[in-house]
Amino acid sequence: MMEMSFRWYGELDKVKLENIKQIPCMEGIVTALYDVPVGEVWPVEKIQKLKETVEASGLRLSVIESVPVHEEIKLGTENAQKYIDNYKQTIRNLGQAGIDTVCYNFMPVFDWTRTEMEFVLPDGSTGLRYEQETIDKFDIENNDLSLPGWDVSYTRDELNDLIGKYQKISHEMLWENLQKFLEEVIPVAIEAEVKLAIHPDDPPWDMFGIPRIITNEQALERVTKIVDSPYNGITFCTGSLGANSENDLPAMIRSLLKKNRINFVHARNIALLGEKAFQEVAHPSKYGNVDMYEIIKALVEGGYEGPIRPDHGRMIWGEAGNYGYGLYDRALGAVYLKGLEEAIIKDDKK
Ligand code: CS2
Ligand code: MN
User: Fold this and answer.
1) How far apart (Å, rounded) are the C-alpha atoms in residues 234 and 258?
2) Is 237 among the residues known to form the active site?
3) What is the phi/psi pair of residue 296, to 5°?
4) Which of 70, 100, 104, 312 is catalytic?
5) Is 283 tagged catalytic?
6) Tens digit of pLDDT for each residue in 190-224?
7) Number of domains observed in the structure of the chain
8) Which residues form the domain of 279?
């Protein structure tokens, strides 16, 4: 069986570990150290403390999401090596504390991006929405663009400076910087027995003239080949990859599992609204374009037994909290996913 898990933003999260523990079938926590600046080494003691806190609630610390990759690494500057060395030490420290899976992404400047955080759905619940049209109209040089939920925030000057630098970076240059990063970090991950899981770019296309590369099947295949090891794996995020209708998600899962390259799964449903536009919806298949039954079937039949979490949920029942990360809708999503899994496993045994 897959290990059902739940993202928790630490002590400041409105959602408490005790709440999460009460969700049926819940086994694990996905979290991070939120007070270590990006690029610095994560101290072993702090990791151990976090693990103890999680375990005291009766759950396992299943995945660290994320250890952010410093922009200097993605830009491939002369400072990159220092940050790569720090990253390696963080991986060693995580291994020493008994952590076995780490999620990260290689998106320049922006992590996940949405143009509306509280779009009201017909039933009165709210969900996140993305429309390219709004992004294209955005005057980035004159506005402070910040979104809740990101691990990092920038001032307007920092943002303009970074964007300027990336506009000179081609897709191939970004690939080279990712290659250098993986060639250095994966051998350490193997040694430390910590599986890495790159998160696809969300949304999976360029924004503001900045390249994004982890967008489709070809890209995932390419990443996994850079260093050919199960420790160099993927976070299969159905919402991110599903935003491009050309991505055949179940087929991608089957092919990645044959090579044992899926280390973590984010299950999220989205309704496609047209070219480069989508609405986040409840997890069941009928609300969007992600066929959750086919996703879970591909995972079960491919032998996936690693961590999975409901990724994002709507805000329902008047809940307020981190956008996409309330308790109720994600809890419903988790149980729905476990239901699909049970049915598929039992059916396959007949
Ligand atoms: C997450 C990402 O909320 C989300 O959409 O999937 O923020 C994710 O944590 C990072 O991209 C992974 O590094
Ligand atoms: Mn995701």
Assistant:
1) 13
2) yes
3) -65, -35
4) 312
5) no
6) 999 999 999 999 999 998 889 999 999 999 999 99
7) 1
8) 3-348
